Amino acid sequence: MNPEIEWPSWPTLYTPSLSSTPPLLTLNTQAGRKSVEPGTSFTMYVCGITPYDATHLGHAATYLTFDLINRYQCASGSKVSFVENITDIDEPLLERAARDDVDWQSLAASQVDLFRSDMTALHILPPAHYVPATGVMGLIDDAITQMDRNGFVYRVESDLYFDIESFIPQLPISLDDALSIFAERGGDPARPGKRHPLDPVLWWANKNDEPGWESSHGYGRPGWHIECSVIALRYLIGQDFLTGNDQEFSIDLQGGGSDLIFPHHFMSGAQAQALLGRPFARHYVHAGMVGLDGEKMSKSRGNLVFVSKIISAGVDPMIIRFALLQDHYQSDRMWSDESLHKASEAVSIIRSALSREFVSPTEGLISEIITSLSQNLDTPAALAKLRIWAERVDDVPTQQGAGELSRTLDALLGLAL
Ligand code: ZN
């Protein structure tokens, strides 16, 4: 039996709670706009990185989005349980390690170190459990056995596949689009012996010298999607999720970049449903993609912009955070030097206003910022109102200090200004 392993997360930060926050409305990618009820507890699973090129701005924008949800729920008095994974065994990681002639585990460890320091610098609250795929091999083994009992597993040669057929009506996109995306992103729709072209691999039998683990399904390694189903259920529902306790419990939110809507979130949700017999998550939230100077930012174009490089060039991480908040989380946006320039100018005006001994009243502004965030995390509106206040800070300087406003910015936007 492979023991469970977690990796250290990064340092946490104090988040002040606020007295009055309306329920958060975010766009549920599956069901249209819907409230994320505050409740007394909130369970959130966010798909983590495959650690071979951390942390580019697309990663940062995604984790910032879920940090805003985390902060809003915390400030509303919810006890947030936040879990994130690390895809530390997958094709792209092995390919990069082979290309650079480095050990795949050392590559993963070094990139996760970089990711932690970038997340710390950007004031992203850490997950309570930061779990690598290689840390849950025993659970993946058990989950596949359970899915097999439930009738969802079949074998093609020595590899195991998940039978997706009964979930096809839940596809978030058309079947034609799904087939072409599946093929583009490393799927194998045409493999002889598959029942449905979209069936994903659950367990790869060992090939050549690839890393592998002993399991009841043979020596090998898991497919991508099953790790997230298992880690989310284990760390958000509980150790006995496979025994069927807590029958009513789905997780509150599954999140990631919009490139995960299909296939990853569809597949991991279907696999969790095949295990539990009920929906996996009540809300799906997805962050838009970040491009560079008019082009899509991607590994293949070689135009990824890394957070660590911007920081090492001397940019204050709060300015990077502010720059990313200038656009709405759902929009596909373009990054340019101008984004940083605009953010730097705004931060300087706001910092100067916050440091005044007497300022214009902040109560109305605080309420407007909270309202903007509650409405699908409208950060551009919140920052625009903040800037207007900062520019007019001397209009009616009747209030001593802006401490309450600073605490709100810190609690909800993670901006320590
Ligand atoms: Zn995932």
Topology, please?
Elements: E1 24-28, E2 32-36, E3 41-46, H1 57-75, E4 79-86, H2 91-99, H3 104-121, E5 129-132, H4 137-149, E6 153-156, E7 159-162, H5 175-184, E8 201-205, E9 220-222, H6 224-237, E10 251-257, H7 261-276, E11 281-287, E12 290-292, E13 295-296, H8 307-312, H9 317-325, E14 333-335, H10 337-354, E15 358-359, H11 363-374, H12 379-391, E16 399-400, H13 403-413
Parallel strand pairs: 3-4, 3-10, 4-5, 10-11, 12-14
Antiparallel strand pairs: 1-2, 6-7, 7-8, 8-9, 12-13, 15-16
Helix pairs in contact: 4-6, 6-7, 9-10, 10-12, 11-12, 11-13
The structure holds zinc ion (ZN).
Describe the fold and architecture:
With 417 residues, the protein is an alpha/beta fold. The protein folds into two domains: 24-288, HUPs (Rossmann fold), CATH 3.40.50.620; 325-413, Up-down Bundle (Four Helix Bundle (Hemerythrin (Met), subunit A)). The protein contains 13 helices and 16 strands. The chain has helices spanning 57-75, 91-99, 104-121, 137-149, 175-184, 224-237, 261-276, 307-312, 317-325, 337-354, 363-374, 379-391, 403-413, and strands at residues 24-28, 32-36, 41-46, 79-86, 129-132, 153-156, 159-162, 201-205, 220-222, 251-257, 281-287, 290-292, 295-296, 333-335, 358-359, 399-400. The protein has a five-stranded parallel beta sheet with strand order 5-4-3-10-11, sandwiched between helices. It has a four-stranded antiparallel beta sheet with strand order 6-7-8-9. Helix 10 crosses helix 12, helix 11 (363-374) packs antiparallel against helix 12 and helix 11 (363-374) packs parallel to helix 13. The mean pLDDT is 92. The structure holds zinc ion (ZN). Zinc ion (ZN) binds at residues 47, 85, 228, 264, 268.
